[in-house]
Target: DASS family sodium-coupled anion symporter
Amino acid sequence: MKKIIITIILLLIPFIFAFILPVPKGLSYAAWVLFAIYIAAILGLVFKPVPNAIVLATAVTGVALFLGAELGGAKKATQSALSGYASPTTWIIISAFALSIAFTKTGLGARIAYLLINALGKSTLRLGYVTSFLDLIISPATPSNTARAGGIVFPIINSIANNLNPNKSGEANRAGAYLACNTYMSTKVTSFIFATAQASNFLVISAINTHFNLGLDWGMWALALVVPGIICLLFVPIITYIFIRPDVKKIDNKAIASQGLAKLGKITNREIMLIVIFIAALLGWSLPSILNAMGFKISINATAVALAAMCASVLTGVIKWEDIASSKEAISTLFWFGGIMSLSTLLKEHNFFTWLGALLEGTLTFKDHAFLAVVIIGLISIFIRYLFASATVYAVTIFPVFLLLAKAAGADVLTLCFVLAATNSFGGAITHYGGPAAPIIFGAGYNNVKEWWLTGTMVALISFVIILFVGGVWWKIVF
Model:
């Protein structure tokens, strides 16, 4: 009954805006109603009366059905409402899911984990670094950090944690508490290093390119954030270790790795082919930006590379088409992400963001203290995540507003964009509900809320300082 009431309220919002509330000065009627539909969709993502895919499918259907007169006719309105599903940004994410599925189906993700454990994991702290490095290695190919942390990394780490303390369960297993919390903190850092490491990164890219026309792409993103991001990642296991002391310090990593690798057997041709495809995709995503910066003109679209990787994965037998088609997460992402792209594109076309920027610029000011604006807005962008259980919802609601605020203060464009891009990810570390992977890992029962929140807050704040200062120096060097 509660979900039905929420659904009815959300459906009424566009009608209230359209027929009761006055249109603000300087804004068109079409933009006002589109904004209402956008607000209703975002609230739908927050309260979840129905699955996310249906929330956005309903929103774009409303645009197509009721805004024909304002958008140039019924046919044009339908085309505009569905335009996000043809967006290259949407398809790079959907295509990258194929690689994510392949890492799980072939066992390559688990094999990499056990090889890292064998080489590095002879103590609990070092095993924390193994977790971080594993997440980093597979992050460019897994746009769902839920699938990465919750589906690939944590099941392995959870099994190890249980074996380390077979007579202790729940919060009494402090080695498990350390490893579990570190798994989540690591994925909240790796998720901003590569654009394809988190689906919401492409919403961030879209917002940045909309407001600043930077031409930000996969390669430029990686070039900007890989150095400060890896430095942030190096701090995560030790920060977690300080706040959550494991009760087991030494680990028989050779035995753990030997048992895990024996279960996997010899490396298969499918795994070898996946390695080749994965490396080729990374080169295809990164080299154009790097070579263009060096004066060598090369034009390869990142979405085309992702589609090629997906097709190659199926054509070479690494995975089957049925593996992709049966992925509920991939299909759901296609529906909700394409819908978000449609709505945000329409708002841009009808000058909503221009109007909002002018409104903010006229009412808020940092009196030309540009760096202070970045610091304050960056901190707000972290702690406001207490209100958000999803980086996606944050990216489509608050992130564009913060961009406009800092822009109005005259902040350096590159610093502003990359700082806020990073906080979009590690801001979710501060709570045990800051991303969909959190309930999976926290739900294992090793951690209490106090230690999780304290550790996450320190990870977020130290990462913020690194991004501000190390990132600031790095960006001056490379751009």
